[in-house]
Amino acid sequence: MMKKQQFIITFLLILFCCSNSLYARHAPTGDSLSKKESGLVTIAATAGIGDLTKLKDAINKGLDAGLTSNQIKESLIHLYAYAGFPRSIRGLQTIMSVLEERKAKGINDPTGADASPIQNEKPKYERGKAILEQLTGVPEKEPKTGYAAFAPTIEIFLKEHLFADIFERDILTYAERELVTISILASIGGVEPMLKSHLTICLNIGLSEEQLQQFISTIESAVGKTQAVEAQKILDEVLANRK
């Protein structure tokens, strides 16, 4: 009898741990942004506008807050999908120099985990489509309309590359990737429809209104009041539409 009870308890613990690991793939961490999450916002925003002096300071603070070098590197790789290769590469060059300087001072920052191999053998388009539907909570419509119908090639690139090749990597959670995304979009400006969509995704995957308000404050500190005011307008619109 005791062995049977122990088996049941062990089974339930394994089931609980597995469920938690799946949820952690995209779950936010709490009611307010953690220091690591705020660090990612500042890193993404300053890298997005190419302010390498502020980016260097942001990377140092992010490492001090507990971000691994691989998490920061991944956020700067993610950056290129929204701000282009030049900004991404300059960001990567900046973290390289920061790590060298810190190592010279005797600071050995943790590298962190590498991305796990992708085991899914489905076509990348289908994988990307499934991830996008999970993020938005809305089934993809057929036939395509708007830019997707006008330029179907870019729609394929988005599904296969952005949402499969990039979002499928597990170094950052979905919530962390979305924080990086909205930070880039808010900092570069002129992409309000995209920022609106990704703020909606943030709420859909569990980030709270309080966390997004904190994101706005962090953007103001990182890149300026103008960007924060514009981002606040879009967030207010998103929240009003949900209510």
UniProtKB/TrEMBL annotation:
GO terms for molecular function: peroxiredoxin activity. Keywords: Oxidoreductase, Peroxidase, Signal. Residues 1-24 form the signal peptide. InterPro entries: 4CMD/NDH-1_regulator (IPR052512), AhpD-like (IPR029032), CMD-like (IPR003779). SUPFAM superfamilies: AhpD-like. It holds the Pfam family CMD. Residues 158-236 form the Carboxymuconolactone decarboxylase-like domain. This is Uncharacterized conserved protein YurZ, alkylhydroperoxidase/carboxymuconolactone decarboxylase family. It comes from Sphingobacterium lactis. The lineage of its organism: Bacteria, Pseudomonadati, Bacteroidota, Sphingobacteriia, Sphingobacteriales.
